[in-house]
Amino acid sequence: MPKDARKDLELAARIRALRHGLALSQAGFAELAGVDQSNVSRWENGAIPDDPHIRRMADLAQCPLAQFRYGEASEEPPKPPAEAVAVVGYVGAGQEVLAYDDHALGGGLEEVGAPEGDGDTPMVAVRVRGDSMHPMRDGWLLFYRREDHGVQDDCLNRLCIVKVADEGPILVKELRRGYRGNHFVLSSWNAPPMEDIRLDWAAPVLSIRPS
Predict the structure, then answer these.
(1) How far is CA 155 from CA 130, 140, 201, in A?
(2) Which residues contact 147 (CB under 8 A, 6 or more apart)?
(3) What is the pTM of this model?
(4) Which pLDDT band, with edges at 50, 70 and 90, does 60 fall under?
(5) Angle of CA points 100, 105, 106, to nearest 5°
(6) Rounded to 5°, angle at Cα 77 from 73 and 79
(7) Which of 23-27, 55-59, 78-82 is the least confident region?
(8) For residue range 73-103, what is the model confidence (pLDDT) as tens digits?
(9) What is the CA radius of gyration of the chain?
(10) Which domains does the chain have, with CATH numbers?
(11) Please, which residues bridge with residue 186 across strands?
């Protein structure tokens, strides 16, 4: 078997082992990766995920990106310390962020290491509380970067941290375009959607880290 083909099958095995280690079905794992179940099935049969999906899976596996993509290296140079990221709130029951520091780069309730490979611009994180966000679990971290108010096009059809307008709550939802200008549909993984909602801001979830 060609070396590249063998490496692709080894990646498929790591993806399958990661999913099994998280005790998730292909559908549940697809929700975390932001893809359809058919994508996970193809990955586990040797198809190569796009780089952003490999990065997210490396975060879930809590290992370096290159190691997850290519396997164990014989020797790796020592890594510099991870950049510190402020955890600015908690995602609790009903998917609402509680005890939230509402600054783009808030002082934070604690600090954790930044995800690998997500650029140099500072980011923040929220921590999951409870089990209302299945397949996410208690203690998991959601990382995001918010530089402005408003909702940018790159937020659409993605898992986002969102701030509902008029002093509304901060939530974690999948964001869809609404029926009127500047209004949106906020979709949950395990609850009915919230329709025609106006937002102050939205920020895509860049990385998910199990705890």
Answers:
(1) 25, 21, 10
(2) 104, 121
(3) 0.72
(4) confident
(5) 40
(6) 110
(7) 78-82
(8) 544 555 555 578 888 888 765 556 665 555 5
(9) 18
(10) 3-70 (1.10.260.40), 84-209 (2.10.109.10)
(11) 175, 194
